[in-house]
C-alpha cells in the first residue's frame, strides 16, 4: 500500500542519430514545448530536469536500461522521468496536444525495437524516483511483462497492486 500514491513514469527511446544530427533535429526542436505542456498538464507533479551546462539531471545520474541495444552513445537515447497524480493524467498529456503531434512523428526520429518505450509504477507521495529505479522498472517490464511492479497503459495496476482499467483520458489542459 502506498501513502498518497503517485505514478512514476519513465519514457525511453532510441534516436536514429545522436542529438545534434539533422536527422533528429525536429525531435530536439520540440523538447521545450513538450516539457512546457507536461508541466502545465492537470495531474503533473514534477520531472527530472537536466542542467543545460553540465547535462546532469536533478534526480541523479542517468543510466541506460539493460534492454537498450548495446553500444549506443547516451546522445542516442531519449529518456524522461516524471511524477503524476494518476495514469489517466499521463495518458491525457501523452495522447493529446503537442506530445501527440510528436508521437505521430516518432518513426522519423526513433528506432523501433523489442524494448518497452515507457513504464509506469506507483510510489509514495514523498518518494522521488531515481534513474536507476526507472531503468530497473523498464527492464522488469521488458522481462516479465506488466506486473504491479512495472506496468503499461494497456495493463495497468492500481496503487494496491490489483489489475485495473484506465478511465478514458481527458485532453490535457
CATH class: Alpha Beta
Query: Uncertain runs with pLDDT below 50, 5 residues or more?
Result: none
- Give the strand content: 15-25%
SS-based class: alpha+beta
**CATH topology label:** Alpha-Beta Plaits
Q: Determine Rg (CA atoms, Å).
A: 15 Å
Under the CATH scheme, the architecture is 2-Layer Sandwich
Number of strands: 5
Helix-strand pattern, N to C?
EHEEHHHEEH
Give the rounded overall mean pLDDT: 94
Protein name: DUF3291 domain-containing protein
Pfam families: DUF3291
Organism: Dyella japonica A8
Domain DUF3291: 8-155
Question: Could you explain how this protein is built, in words?
Answer:
Pfam families: DUF3291. InterPro entries: DUF3291. This is DUF3291 domain-containing protein. Residues 8-155 form the DUF3291 domain. With 173 residues, this protein is α+β, with helices and mostly antiparallel strands. Helix content is 28%, strand content 17%. The chain is built from five helices and five strands. The chain has helices at residues 25-39, 87-94, 97-104, 106-109, 131-144; strands at residues 6-15, 44-47, 77-84, 110-111, 118-123. Strands 1, 2, 3, 4 and 5 form a five-stranded antiparallel β-sheet that branches. Helix 1 (25-39) runs antiparallel to helix 3 (97-104). The radius of gyration is 15 Å and the shape is globular. The model has no long low-confidence stretch (mean pLDDT 94).
Amino acid at each position: 500500500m502506498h501513502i498518497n500514491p503517485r505514478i512514476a513514469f519513465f519514457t525511453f527511446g532510441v534516436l536514429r542519430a545522436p542529438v545534434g544530427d539533422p536527422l533528429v533535429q525536429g525531435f530536439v526542436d520540440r523538447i521545450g514545448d513538450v516539457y512546457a505542456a507536461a508541466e502545465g498538464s492537470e495531474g503533473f507533479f514534477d520531472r527530472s530536469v537536466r542542467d543545460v551546462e553540465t547535462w546532469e539531471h536533478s534526480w541523479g545520474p542517468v543510466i541506460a536500461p539493460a534492454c537498450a541495444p548495446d553500444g549506443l552513445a547516451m546522445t542516442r537515447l531519449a529518456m524522461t522521468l516524471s511524477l503524476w497524480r494518476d495514469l489517466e493524467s499521463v495518458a491525457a498529456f501523452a495522447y493529446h496536444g503537442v506530445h501527440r503531434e510528436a508521437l505521430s512523428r516518432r518513426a522519423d526520429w526513433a528506432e523501433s525495437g523489442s524494448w518497452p518505450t515507457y513504464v509506469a509504477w506507483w510510489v509514495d507521495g514523498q518518494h522521488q524516483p531515481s534513474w536507476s529505479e526507472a531503468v530497473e522498472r523498464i527492464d522488469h517490464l521488458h522481462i516479465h511483462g506488466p506486473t504491479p511492479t512495472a506496468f503499461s497503459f494497456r495493463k495497468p495496476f492500481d496503487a494496491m497492486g490489483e489489475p485495473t482499467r484506465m478511465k478514458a483520458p481527458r485532453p490535457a489542459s
